[in-house]
Amino acid sequence: MAELTVFGFKPGKSVIHRLDVRFKLIFLIVISLASLKASGMSLFLLTLVLVAVLSHAGLSLKPVMRALGYVFVLLFFIFVARALSTPGDPFIEFKFVSVSREGIQQGALVCWRFFIVVMIGLCFVSTTRPAEIKAATEWFLNPIPFIPEKRVATMMSLIMRFIPVILNQARETADAQRARGVENRKNPVYRLKKLGIPLMRRTFETAEKIAVAMEARCYSENRSDPELSANKRDWLALFMVICLCVFILVM
Questions:
Q1: Could you tell me if 128 and 117 are in contact, meaning their C-beta atoms sit under 8 angstroms apart?
Q2: Most buried of the four, 27, 60, 118, 146, by CB within 10 Å?
Q3: Which of 121, 156, 123 is nearest to 137 (CA)?
Q4: Quick count: other Cβ atoms within 10 Å of Cβ 26?
Q5: How would you class 54 by CB atoms within 10 Å of its CB: exposed for 0-12, middle for 13-18, buried for 19 or more?
Q6: pTM of the model
Q7: Of the segments 6-20, 28-42, 92-106, which one has the largest average pLDDT value?
Q8: What are the tens digits of pLDDT across the range 119-168?
Q9: Contact status, residue 167 vs residue 66, Cβ threshold 8 Å
């Protein structure tokens, strides 16, 4: 049921699907690093570009936003922590708690940047097969000595395949707890415990079953990988991404 989540490969014929996976990895790193230094206007422009890319890749924004619910909770805590810890002109004061205007601004920018990084990663995993990610990881690690590139690439491929399974199990566990009225309990620690412990148990059990199945089938890291080939479309996309990043940094 991993295909029911957005964090998995979605077949398609878009330009993003047809790009070489090595270039997409470079795009992921370069755009993520550029977003860390981007201003508010640059982040707005980058957000519009990402929305257009996701739409072109066939990903609907509504299920994506629904699937990122836990990410928004994390962003909320990051925003609150940044707003309370950044010194500056007080915007809200209540006893020992002070929220500064600079903290609100910095918290919003940090959350926005983090959200963009998540969206870039989502676009990457949704348009790239795990086998291609394995081949690209092995290709990049091959020149580095003392690193078992095949083993590391195999681990990366398994992680990419396992993330949708974990998210699907989290949704099923949450639905089961909701059906039992756990959400009616006011204690958030109790609700978190009732969700986290069963989810961890199911995750480890699934991982053990996968490991046993792989061992029973004599699964090896020495497998035939898809052939990687770059063409003019990939180099043109690289040029466009570099121009976009430079424009974002100087904007």
A1: no
A2: 27
A3: 156
A4: 18
A5: buried
A6: 0.77
A7: 28-42
A8: 888 888 888 888 888 888 888 888 888 888 888 888 877 777 777 777 77
A9: no
**CB 35 within 8 Å of CB 46:** yes
| Burial zone of 122 (CB within 10 Å; 0-12 exposed, 13-18 middle, 19+ buried) | buried
CA 34 vs CA 31, 38, 124, 251: distances in Å: 5, 6, 17, 12
Task: Write the pLDDT tens digit of every residue in 61-115.
Answer: 777 777 777 788 888 888 888 888 877 777 677 766 777 888 888 888 999 999 9
User: Is 185 in a helix, a strand, or coil?
Assistant: coil
Q: Identify the sign of the CA torsion 77, 80, 85, 86.
A: positive
Domain ranges of the chain: 16-129+233-251, 130-225
**How far is it, in rounded angstroms, from Cα 58 to Cα 120?**
15
C-alpha closest to that of 35 among 120, 105, 122, 106: 120
CA separation for the pair 205, 210 (Å, rounded)? 9
